[in-house]
Write a structure and sequence with these properties.
The structure is a homodimer. Chain A is of the alpha+beta class. In chain A, about 20% of the residues lie in helices and about 35% in strands. Chain A folds into two domains: about 60 residues, lambda repressor-like DNA-binding domains (434 Repressor (Amino-terminal Domain), Orthogonal Bundle); about 100 residues, Jelly Rolls (Sandwich), CATH 2.60.120. The two termini of chain A are about 40 Å apart. The structure holds a DNA duplex.
Chain lengths: ~200, ~200
DNA sequence: GATTAGATTCCGAAATACCGGAAATCCGTC
DNA sequence: GACGGATTTCCGGTATTTCGGAATCTAATC
């Protein structure tokens, strides 16, 4: 058969899988390896490597995994779309998207682009005195990285509680309910959410 | 046959693939979906989904891809090791590791743990008037996310130049030389480096 | 131009991923 | 405890991946 790739559910747009063959071949050639060499390194037969590199076969994750280890490429990055923007994108102070109706007495300024899902998001959060931000658990494995710019905040993650003042930083898993509050006065924090 | 997973080249340690079935099943159950439901959503048959979730079959990347889209999980993250730390880690203002001898007139406060390489790093950088931080290109695909806390800074990435003041944010690729400088007075910026 | 060494592609045969329907298992409800 | 309804697993058959070897292609050398 001519095209073995079962590309059902493949709208015109994101055929990320079609990029994989070329990337694999490039990775191999970059290291000056022959098909036979990677075959011995990975345990995948030469013919299979050849077919995969020509897009004539859709490898099982097991074999792909073995290939990535032999070629020393990152399994994850291999399947990601070419995500490179050309130049500097600037988001001016006045035009930062802001959410006010979440939590109480706090405004959330979204500093990362909405498209960029799956890696990390960046927020600038400003609390009035007594402001509270309550969050439900995110996806398992996610972590937050919180740095206090000014004021004093109280951080609660699961059962644990910490008091943080300007300059302090806290990191914590967020597969559990967590709360940030500014009890003693206004505060500003910088929050990086790393998706799990 | 009982175990179809071709697990050749599988040292005792990182059998990341063995985690995949459980993760898929968890993702499905979290959304309250039945095998039949995801089958219709993804185009993969119920039986296949069942087999994959029980580790009795190693899916091709094509079918796995379809599953990830139906379950709305990140293909990349699915294959990464479980990276969860137990509780809140706190880094106090006074004990933040700081670098002063890089660049001129600037001190770099490292807010992310050194172990956590490969995802993102977080820095709090403080410039004296005239301070300059020159950086060589990082790994291709890396991006920086810079937010100005106070003062005015000049950002140069490749050939492009932008002037940023307090509250402004800039995002830019760093597979090219880039420079941050505070020409008109002291400044403080927050920098998130996303590894490519 | 012929020879040789290396790399890649082609070709059965065996293994296994994949599908659709049937059987089995799990629950609530009467 | 028996009866739906829903979910999951089992069981054919088919399509595709995967392997090892043979054939083809590529280039350098003589």
């Amino acid at each position: 058969m001519t095209s073995a790739m079962t590309d059902n559910s493949t709208p015109p747009e994101t055929e990320v899988l079609s990029l994989l063959p070329a990337r694999l071949r490039a990775a191999r050639r970059d290291q000056g390896l022959s098909l036979d060499a990677v075959a011995k390194l990975s345990g995948v037969s030469r013919s299979m490597v050849s077919q995969i590199e020509r897009g004539e076969s859709s490898p099982t994750i097991a074999t792909l995994w073995n290939l990535t280890r032999a070629l020393q490429v990152d399994f994850a990055g291999l399947l990601e779309g070419a995500t490179d923007a050309p130049g500097i994108e600037v988001l001016r102070d006045a035009s930062v998207p802001t959410i006010n109706n979440k939590g109480q007495g706090c405004s959330i300024r979204i500093l990362s682009p909405p498209e960029e899902v799956g890696r990390h998001e960046v927020y600038d959060i400003r609390f009035a005195e007594g402001g509270i931000l309550d969050s439900d658990p995110h996806k398992r494995g996610s972590r937050e990285h919180l740095t206090v710019i000014s004021g004093i905040v109280r951080l609660k993650a699961g059962t644990q509680v910490e008091l943080l003042k300007a300059g302090d930083t806290a990191r914590y898993p967020v597969d559990q309910p967590h709360t940030i509050s500014a009890e003693t006065g206004p505060a500003q924090v910088f929050l990086v959410v790393q998706d799990g």
